[in-house]
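notes to self, project folder thing:

trying the whole complex as one job this time. last attempt i did each chain seperately and stitching them together was a nightmare. three parts in total, labels are on each line so i dont mix them up again. if this works i'll redo the older ones the same way
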Amino acid sequence: MSTPVMHKKKKFGTGTIWTVLAWILGLGFFFPVLWMVLTGFKQEADAYSDPPKLFFTPTLDQYRAVLSSGIGTALMNSAFATIVSTILVLLLGIPAAFALSLRPVKKTKDVLFFFISTKMLPVVAVIVPLYVIVGDIGLLDNIWALIVLYTAMNLPIAVWMMRSFFLEVPSELLEAASMDGASLWTSVREVILPLVSPGIAATALICTIFSWNEFFFAVNLTAVQAQTIPVALVGFITGEGLYWARLSAAATLAALPVVLAGWIAQNKLVRGLSFGAIK
Amino acid sequence: MTTTEVRSTDAGSDEFVPRSRTISKAEGWRRRGPLLPALIFLILVTQIPFLFTLYYSTQSWNLVRPGSQEFNWLNNYVDVFRDSQFREVALNTVIMIVGTVIISVILGLMLALLLDRKFIGRSLIRTLLITPFLVTPVAGALIWKTAMFDPVFGLINFVLSPFGVEQIDWVSRFPLAAVMTNLIWQWTPFMMLLILAGLQSMPKDIAEAARVDGASAFSLFRELTLPHLRRFIELGAVLGAIYLVNTFDAVYMMTSGGPGVASANLPFYIYQRAFLGFDIGQAAAMGVVTVIATILVSTLALRLIFKSFSGNEEAA
Amino acid sequence: MAAITYKKASCVYEGADKLAVDSLDLDIQDGEFVVLVGPSGSGKSTALRMLAGLEDIDGGAIEIGGKNMVGVPSKDRDIAMVFQNYALYPNKTVGENMGFALKMRGVSTEERKKKVAQAAEILDLTEFLDRKPGKLSGGQRQRVAMGRAIVREPQVFCMDEPLSNLDAKLRVQTRTQIAALQRRLGTTTVYVTHDQVEAMTMGDRVAVLRGGKLQQFASPTELYDNPVNAFVAGFIGSPAMNLMTVPIGSGGVQIGDATLPLEREVMTKLASAGLDTVTIGLRPEQLGIEHGAGFAAQVDLIEELGSESYVYAHLDDPKVKGLDGGPVALVARSAVRAPAKIGESISLTKLDGPVHLFHPESGDRI
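result (full assembly):
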């Protein structure tokens, strides 16, 4: 007579500690975010309480106030900048990653190094000339300035990530395609791209996260018209001062799109950050 | 069926003159072609402004005094090195980066190890854990400053009050630590995901062989797991450091660099000089110094990780 | 279908100083099934890939149907290749995989479907046409790889160790299918393997390569009966031929206390070559196990295969050396079960068949 129940009981001891610990840490890390979301549903009086209130009557007043305060433009701007810059990154980056992996150029390592080195340049060092140049071209407070900068900002990491995905394609596959009579361009389209599309999606997600959340360029190079969400959020503070609940509601709305995107595409995110280590 | 008896001729090797194996010029350009748009774009957008920064750094130029733009040569740089605040800020920056990276790698490692096993709610916990990385840094800094660290209404004080801790104004008393707490909170998920990728890419049969050979869980970790994870940890540390050099949002939101410059890092300090103090020349010089320092340090670091993670991995 | 000629073809890998393929000369006739065989590093795969256009022809030339292929890209050579790991397009169905090359040529969809269906029927793949490679077994994937090659109706088939990823039983089965298929289609085929059994059973003619150089190019029986040097002699045939370097005595060669007699013309040839030792080769089936007359040996191991057995023994004589200079391990074949016991001292005699003689240093046939 087999006793599977006994088997499970034996494992109960050691495993549970780690599970409980994982739960505690997970909830702990998430807690600040949770608190922020909850606070957005409070009345100001409830938000400012000592000791902090866990139970309260929720209200949608704060969210209504935030949404009616004209956050719409910022939302459009952020979305536009994020989407267009990500598309540009893919358009420029995919061929570059291809050149650096499948048909190696002579100085591949040096080029890769250069790409990453552009990220090591503290942006603050170039913000002044950028401000001047952007102003001279007349693109201050214009979303296109941000688009160009975000593209440059994300391009190195994107190329690096996509290169690792290209390197995963078995070379035999390309040889077979070339023997079947496919030109280089056709091989790319029919064979390579379908294989690396999850990797490209992951790269796009990472670019989205960094573009949406970017603050420094946005705050210095935009004013009212091209304002992005993070800037609008900060504007809320100086304007609203210590209206904590409303601030929380605004912060929640600001963070929501990317958090949701990250949650939904979680597996892609994990895959993207693995740089090809996990198949 | 005819048979052919062939003896290998050694003379063949002497007569052999290999065709040129170098890629023709046309092929070389065809290969480089796809790379050029990205490369040129990046050079234009990143290098040209820097050239301007170099130019500005040699001038004494303060926007408050129009028409004051004149060549100052290297005086700005001398001022930079004499500026004691600059030194303090530089130190803050180093502490911020190194401290954040080290602590978030350690925490990330712990979390990755915990997540590497199957348990109830595992995917939910992972979802929760990656959130700090996704939240807009400005919003995150806000949460920490107000909800957590506020002297009166903050949760940290609330949680610690049973232990007899009175109302501490964390942000004023421990500004650098407060900013770092926010940064660690934000970057730990990133390290965790990278290390988790490393753990999951470890070939299982080696671990099984070790266990059969009698290795304890601890020595397995030390001898097999850690060496394998090394390249992932290095990658995380370098990438994290690259992004952390530019930390601005947290300092801006939480402390505005204060009190004084206790929590200011280089980006914020230079920003202050340029946009609040309008001293373009000085700011530019500081920027150049920062760039040089960053390049020196990271060149060493990057050569290191290229050795372990250039995409030409051996059996992993 | 076309004849293939390798004319002093050579290939060197970038950065290497040794030639991967060294002045290869092969004359392959139209419709022939030629096997390139050799140990790892012999250059056989490289020679195949040079034919397919996947490696550059650095020296000499390769002609297909009389046309020089130097500088001609793979897609213009009208060659179909079956890869060792099959190289199937993972995101396409079996039908799409097989029809891909035709699609590249602009063949119409119905024509494509027809040809794919024909090939699928020959290979028993019709029920899998809508499946993706990920959902197929190893043997099925191998057939798809072959199907992809057949559909193209090329002038040459190139096959790079297509059976090495299959389990033993499937390998034997598929081997016969491939040979039958080639006979039916009549397409010139160049096949690479490291397994000499495959080479012997499948090829019309076999080319043995070593270190990038051609050793011998002949029919399987010719290779078996008249190996041109000690390497080919030891490579072809399983278990391998017994090769040993022995001192020349009067009237024959000395093995231990016994003398193996050789004909007078042979002795004269040896004498005129000025040799005092010679490498002799005897196939396992040429050694008989006795107790009494013959050269003394001690049994190390006995392998029973059911239909026959192999006795592994070693000679005690220090003057007899193996090809590597160490002691000689001999294999004798016996039709009897339990022909001897382990540790037993037996005598080996030479049964019917020629004694192969090779120069002790160069290995060439005498």
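what i see at first glance: The domain at 49-308 of chain B is CATH 1.10.3720.10 (MetI-like fold).
need to look closer tmrw
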